[in-house]
Amino acid sequence: MPIPAPTTHLLYLHGFRSSPQSVKARLMAEQVRREHPGLIWWCPQLPPSPRAAMDLVLLGLADWPHASMAVIGSSLGGFYATWVAEQTGCKAVLLNPAVNPARDLANYIGEQTSWHDPAERFFFRSEFVQELRDLSLPNLTQLDRYLAVIAKGDELLDWREMHARYVGAQFHLLEGSDHGLTDFEQHLPVIMAFLDLDP
Fold it and tell me: Using the 8-state DSSP alphabet, how is residue 66 labeled?
């Protein structure tokens, strides 16, 4: 087995109704800026359309080296991160990842507000549910390149479903916590060790 290259490029994908202003995204960005100033960091604002979101991401990753990039995704971003990892072969950290967002978000069709700026609104269209189905992957490969951080205290997603989806991955299973991982900073050492960021 070849020794994996240290991570030189890191993508962060936020969740539904979230943004690059999320606490976790900002904590990761600050950690990278402080400890790994040479690392390429990208945390885009994702459009509501899953297809458009992944088109944006693939365009942004076009020149990234797959062997030394990694992706982090939270909630719906974890679903997207899984898709990106399967397209590129890169490492992925999944934070309370959505397993079946087509099912879960079918109840959210209509106008939505952003968590971090309630004045910011977007429309989640019915066709976006089918776009999520189109991005669903029945089988995952190379599960050892995944780290799933899963909170048993998640109030929105079933931790058992998340755990079952990623059997064979590395797990950081939290007895409590919550969907937003308000104790995220405590888990950064495990995440940073897994990512093996280039100094």
Answer: G
Structural tokens at position 54 = 């992944």
Contact between 3 and 194 (Cβ < 8 Å): no
The answer to whether 96 and 75 have CB atoms below 8 angstroms apart is: yes
d(C-alpha 81, C-alpha 190), whole Å: 18
Q: CA-CA distance, 184 to 192, in Å (whole number)?
A: 12
Cα distances (Å, whole numbers) of residue 75 to 6, 44, 67: 25, 15, 25
Identity of residue 174: L
pTM over 0.90: yes
CATH class, 9-195 region? alpha beta
Domain spans of the chain, in order of start: 9-195
Bigger pLDDT: 158 or 88? 88
Closest of 135, 151, 150, 158 to residue 79, by C-alpha = 135
* Amino acid, res. 15: G
Selection from 125, 156, 147, 103 nearest residue 51 by Cα = 125
d(CA 82, CA 30): 24
pLDDT tens per residue across span 120-169: 888 899 999 999 999 999 999 999 999 999 998 887 888 999 999 999 99
